[in-house]
């Protein structure tokens, strides 16, 4: 192992460090928690948060859970999980009266998506993280820019941010604003792999 | 305010499958101790709780290690072992890191120069 390559546990861009350090901050996207909660109620507690890959949608859901006064049930779907599992069905049954947060429900096939959305009407609320609105009003729209990436870089690694800025500028453009991939690029750089 | 901490018998280097003994020290002995490993690095952190013991009385505990995984250090992933003291409400009171390895030292992983995880998505190119 190269002497100057960081171990995984010391790398400031290790996934767990990034998740703990870069929790969603609404002020960075021009809003406040109070405004988001007010809008959530105004929308009847059925809405979506939209944005491209790596824009922070899941990060927002993680933080929003802690702001709600009703228990939350989480659902996760992606290109590799496009069906309702037994666990999902169980959660749907037990989740009546709770707020459902669905990450990627638009990946579900047509009939399963319809089943899922119909069942969600028994929930106390429904918030979906998706790339497009698809019939739900928008609670929050996320589209990271380079200025945001710079701020987050300084929060994640204050002492190393100046030397990483050129990398972040180049990688942000190459990754088309995908923050998740951007932090992995930073990780790889400090691990001596780039 | 008294210090609440975990004290181990012996040093932090343990053999796989062996027993880790120690005690918790503090003004209020309650909750439980957990023996666990976790991954750390480029991917999602995974945690495995191997043993746990409720605390009472003198705060002494005896936890049994698994045969694997070993404490590992690499640039892509590290595996850490630890003992955590959590109180009755589930909040962490103290944590001590230990090394679990036949040699008494972390296993060092060689660097991966061409990892699959760094490859870009497949790009379709139009050809005439």
Q: Would you mind describing this structure in some detail?
A:
The complex is a heterodimer of chains A (about 190) and B (about 130). Chain A has helices spanning about 15-20, 35-40, 55-65, 85-95, 110-120, 145-155, 160-175, 180-190, and strands at about 45-50, 70-75, 100-105, 125-130, 140. In chain A, β3, α5 and β4 (about 125-130) form a beta-alpha-beta unit. Chain A folds into two domains: about 10-25 and about 145-190, no CATH class; about 25-140, P-loop containing nucleotide triphosphate hydrolases (Rossmann fold). Chain A starts with 14 loop residues before the first helix and ends with a helix. Chain A is an alpha/beta fold and about 190 residues long. In chain A, α6 (about 145-155) runs antiparallel to α7 (about 160-175) and α7 packs across α8. Helices cover about 45% and strands about 15% of the residues of chain A. In chain B, about 0% of the residues lie in helices and about 45% in strands. Chain B is built from no helices and ten strands. At the A-B interface, α8 of A face β8 of B.
Keywords:
heterodimer; A: 194 residues; alpha/beta; 8 helices; 13% strand; B: 128 residues; mainly beta; Immunoglobulin-like; three-stranded antiparallel beta sheet; 46% strand; disordered C terminus
Q: How would you summarize what this structure contains?
A:
The complex is a heterodimer of chains A (194) and B (128). Chain A has 194 residues and is an alpha/beta fold. Chain A has eight helices and five strands.
């Amino acid at each position: 192992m190269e002497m100057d390559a960081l171990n995984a546990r010391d790398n400031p861009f290790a996934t767990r460090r990034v998740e703990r350090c870069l929790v969603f901050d609404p002020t960075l996207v021009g809003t406040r928690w109070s405004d988001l909660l007010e809008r959530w109620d105004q929308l009847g507690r059925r809405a979506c948060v939209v944005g491209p890959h790596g824009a922070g949608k899941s990060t927002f859901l993680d933080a929003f859970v802690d702001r709600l006064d009703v228990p939350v049930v989480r659902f996760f779907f992606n290109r590799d999980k496009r069906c309702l599992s037994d666990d999902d069905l169980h959660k749907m049954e037990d989740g009546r009266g709770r707020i459902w947060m669905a990450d990627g429900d638009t990946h579900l096939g047509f009939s399963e998506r319809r089943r899922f959305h119909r069942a969600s009407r028994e929930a106390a609320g429904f918030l979906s993280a998706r790339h497009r609105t698809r019939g739900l009003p928008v609670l929050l729209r996320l589209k990271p820019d380079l200025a945001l990436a710079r701020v987050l870089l300084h929060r994640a690694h204050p002492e190393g941010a100046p030397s990483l800025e050129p990398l972040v500028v180049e990688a942000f453009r190459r990754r088309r604003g995908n923050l998740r991939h951007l932090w992995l690029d930073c990780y790889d750089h400090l691990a001596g792999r780039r | 305010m008294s210090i609440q901490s975990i004290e181990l018998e012996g040093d932090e280097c343990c053999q796989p499958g062996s027993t880790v003994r120690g005690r918790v020290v503090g003004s209020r002995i309650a909750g439980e101790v957990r023996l666990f490993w976790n991954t750390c690095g480029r991917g999602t952190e995974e945690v495995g709780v191997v043993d746990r013991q409720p605390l009472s009385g003198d705060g002494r505990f005896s936890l049994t290690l698994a045969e694997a995984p070993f404490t590992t250090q690499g640039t892509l992933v590290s595996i850490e072992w630890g003992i955590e003291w959590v109180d009755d409400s589930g909040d962490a009171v103290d944590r001590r890191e230990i090394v679990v390895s036949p040699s008494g030292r972390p296993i060092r992983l060689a660097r991966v120069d061409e990892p699959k995880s760094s490859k870009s998505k497949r790009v379709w190119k139009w050809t005439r």
